[in-house]
Amino acid sequence: MSQALVVHNYIFLAVMCFFLFFFLSILNKLTPEKFDKLCLELLNVGVESKLILKGVILLIVDKALEEPKYSSLYAQLCLRLAEDAPNFDGPAAEGQPGQKQSTTFRRLLISKLQDEFENRTRNVDIYDKRDNPLLPEEEEQRAIAKIKMLGNIKFIGELGKLDLIHESILHKCIKTLLEKKKRVQLKDMGEDLECLCQIMRTVGPRLDHERAKSLMDQYFARMCSLMLSKELPARIRFLLQDTVELREHNWVPRKAFLDNGPKTINQIRQDAVKDLGVFIPAPMAQGMRSDFFLEGPFMPPRIKLDRDPLGGLADMFGQMPGSGIGTGPGVIQDRFSPTMGRHRSNQLFNGHGGHILPPQSQFGEMGGKFMKSQGLSQLYHNQSQGLLSQLQGQSKDMPPRFSKKGQLNADEISLRPAQSFLMNKNQVPKLQPQITMIPPSAQPPRTQTPPLGQTPQLGLKTNPPLIQEKPAKISKKPPPSKEELLKLTEAVVTEYLNSGNANDAVNGVREMRAPKHFLPEMLSKVIIQSLDRTDEDKEKASSLISLLKQEGIATSDNFMQAFLNVLDQCPKLEVDIPLVKSYLAQFAARAIISELVSISELAQPLESGTHFPLFLLCLQQLAKLQDREWLTELFQQSKVNMQKMLPEIDQNKDRMLEILEGKGLSFLFPLLKLEKELLKQIKLDPSPQTIYKWIKDNISPKLHVDKGFVNILMTSFLQYISSEVNPPSEEPDTSSAPSKEQLEQEKQLLLSFKPVMQKFLHDHVDLQVSALYALQVHCNNNNFPKGMLLRFFVHFYDMEIIEEEAFLAWKEDITQEFPGKGKALFQVNQWLTWLETSVEGKQASRTKSRHRITSGTDTSREENKMQQIQM
């Protein structure tokens, strides 16, 4: 390896480490308050390779697994990255409408989550399978592994809520967790069932809709049966019972589980004031004295009473949101933090519960002398050293991961003074001089007046440092809720339908600044609101959706999601609007005309007769709004398989032709109608002149070079020949060869059709290959009668209907569109080998003959030259 390559690799690794370290620092700071700002920072750095993107995904997933409470926040981050992160996979293939477009980020994220899901119990089972009791460190590792296992399930559910994971994947996860594995006892399914309850609590309401009701009923029936099993631990049975009751109560959780996601600091403080009555008093005015300073060793009793029983909650109110180990969702607030007490909003709290005396410097010069005179300096030193040694001893027993997190760099420690929590939101905090505490023993009695000439020791610093406060940040207006958006949409659409001013409607939608995931429901509202109005209003609504697409506000996927949402509501809408499917077909037709969606995009979710006959109604509207030729060309370009658009019971050619004729759409398949009529015409008059004239009069010249037409033409000839050689009254024997008379009759009939075949197949090798496939399918449908395929191959070759090149192209073609290729090759392989050898021999003989002619000419020329020289 060259030195330049080694240097390049080292530089690349260094850049990678820098990027990932930067992303990790952003994740550590992520909170609901800083979400938008940090997301913008993360995207602005630039994810310029798939490797960096994969590293970012690994960091996000690891954080989400370690901190399940903040899964919703990390899911929102993934949604932002899925929309805005670069896509390194190139243009994606067309997916299912209504599903988010596949990107590199979504693909890598789902791959990582799938790996975690499939190995969910691996780390827990390592400890469960041990016979000996676990050590404390092992118990801790097992608890961490279980938290990650449940965190992964919850994270999958949160992503499912945001449509980053398709419903089909969520159903697969649920089925995997519910199924009984072979050689696994029911009591060993506890981990899977706990994961099942977790995913149901997280994403169950989204999955429990009309289309998936039968599946959900099966899931919960299985859960009810497991709930009654005595083999499962009681804790798992109660978890199942809670989940079943949650669905029975329409997925409304109990108060204990309500709103259990991440909150801002202000929300937490407001909740504490509301529920617990805990508050932090505002700083006192200068010169004021009260009993607040007279009790306890340097600790006000009211604060101490609030602090002791509440523990970490009091810490939350007493310090700024950055004073623990790290910042963001991963903050660990404990007494081992080296920054404990540095960010208190009031220096009264400096220390642990009032057990460490403040430094002498805080009392000023007079206070320090007083402490020395009273012997308090030595007491302060002894208590400080004792507690310090106690903390050091306890830190040795801490797990390594906590001791590492406790080591903060200097630049990670915030030195900004904290603002006190104000109960009155309208009150403006004032700059106060710092108040230092004086020991109770150093304070004179209230009735005692200070001696003359002695300055009263109020503990006030004469020259407090000026604190330059930053201007208050203007809080961003939160995005509107779903209900607000729907009301605004209804008002905009009503005004638009009445006034007809499309620009005002588009501007109104733009000013809503709706999140992208709410757009489908807003478009559904536009469609539904116009269904019971006039055709003119429906056309206006369609035009509005097209304008939103042109302005970049909505996308084709948004429309398809909205359209499918309305289709799901059809049973309810049909009560008041009986022709709702016909009206929706108008919306779909206008969307296709305006190129909002394509026919293939509309057809995909309607396959197998879903919402039948909506797709056919849409084609009817297209033919009505445009013309037949335009629709025929557009439909052929879409390559939609019409048979798949019908219910499964009707998926055959005869039934399809019957349905299309009933809807007036048979013009889309002129060849399908030809298949029946051509065979009837041949039976009426098998002369080649009559057949050719009928084809010219009834079939468009454009179709004469169509493979489908050639397939039907050859199939009709072969069916007629078989019916004449083997009358329907006689059951053909496929195992025995036909008689000489039958073979001669077969040859003569084929010879009579030769002019028609040559007319359409001459000089078209691709059409000749289609003719061979028609022969192959005909033989396959008749169970390959003995020698039939080989006979026709020889006849086609001898009569010069099919050229050698077409035979060899058919042999090499590997398409699986037509059945019976394997058997057909087996029957004619030897003949094809002979044909290939003869073709090579002909080419060689032609080359030799050309060489001889050239050599002979050259010899004669040389002889003439010699004769001329001699003369």
Automatic annotation (TrEMBL):
Residues 843-871 are annotated as: Disordered. Residues 484-607 form the MI domain. SMART domains: eIF5C, MA3, MIF4G. GO terms for biological process: regulation of translational initiation. Gene3D superfamilies: 1.25.40.180. Keywords: Acetylation, Initiation factor, Isopeptide bond, Membrane, Methylation, Phosphoprotein, Protein biosynthesis, Repressor, Translation regulation, Transmembrane, Transmembrane helix, Ubl conjugation. It comes from the Eukaryota. GO terms for molecular function: RNA binding; translation initiation factor activity. Residues 661-845 form the W2 domain. The chain crosses the membrane at residues 6-27. Appears to play a role in the switch from cap-dependent to IRES-mediated translation during mitosis, apoptosis and viral infection. Cleaved by some caspases and viral proteases. Interacts with the serine/threonine protein kinases MKNK1 and MKNK2. Binds EIF4A and EIF3. Interacts with MIF4GD. Interacts with DAZAP2. Belongs to the eukaryotic initiation factor 4G family. This is Eukaryotic translation initiation factor 4 gamma 2. It comes from Ornithorhynchus anatinus. The lineage of its organism: Eukaryota, Metazoa, Chordata, Craniata, Vertebrata. The gene is EIF4G2.
